[in-house]
Amino acid sequence: MAGRPFLPDLVPCREDSGVQLEQVGGARVDLLQWQSQASNEQVALPVYTDRWLSSNTCGSIEQVVVHVHGKERDADIAWADIAAARGRLSVDQQKKTLLVVPQFLNGLDKSKYQPANQDLLLVWKGNGWGEGSPSVRPKASVSNDNTGISSFEALDAILSHFANRQMYHGVERIVFCKHPAANHKPAAKHKPPRYEN
């Protein structure tokens, strides 16, 4: 597993993906997919991103703001809050600032996803995602005795994707902020991703 590149991919969330998050003005729902460093299997995390994000606009982005929702797992409301905050920037800075809000799911969020249609989707028990606990879904394969994917790896995947200089060559800053109830603690023991550009 050492030396394997960590290259997450952001893909549009289609209607048949099994993910049914609330629609928010100015945002779209994408799936961040990657091969987990922990399980060596493909996994996915739903994220809200700016609707205007495309291969044509990637180069103009200078700052990425990743806003982590609180224990209510209300990424749609977190998106609206951080979008309102961005609205206080100059028009020029608004156009150069991309918003990303991950949706950490748990078993209470069954209305937001259909497991039968989404074998890759990460789901945690309770609010364990806020403490870096391993996911309970997807189930590890028989050949893999891993217990799940840490939410810290999911945050690393977000960082790795937007730090990719081939796609986002103008990015100068990636900022993580959180709702006060999001308990993410520094991952002192967590190995950061390896970047290859």
Can you walk through the features of this model?
By secondary structure, this protein is of the alpha/beta class. It has one domain (9-178). It is 15% helix and 22% strand. The two termini are 19 Å apart. Residues 181-197 have low confidence and may be disordered.
Element order: H for helix, E for strand: EEEEHHEEEHE
Domains, number: 1
Number of helices: 3
Please state the overall shape, judged from the principal axes of the Cα atoms. Answer: globular
Integer-rounded radius of gyration:
16 Å
Distance, first to last CA: 19 Å
Helices and strands: which structural class? alpha/beta
Strand content: 15-25%
Keywords for this structure?
single chain, 197 residues, alpha/beta, 6-stranded mixed sheet, two-stranded parallel ribbon, AB_hydrolase_fold
Summarize the structure.
The chain has about 200 residues and is α/β, with parallel strands linked by helices.
Which helices and strands occur, and which strands form pairs?
Layout: E1 9-12, E2 27-35, E3 42-50, E4 63-68, H1 75-86, H2 91-95, E5 97-102, E6 105-106, E7 123-124, H3 151-162, E8 173-178
Parallel strand pairs: 4-5, 4-8, 6-7
Antiparallel strand pairs: 1-2, 2-3, 3-5
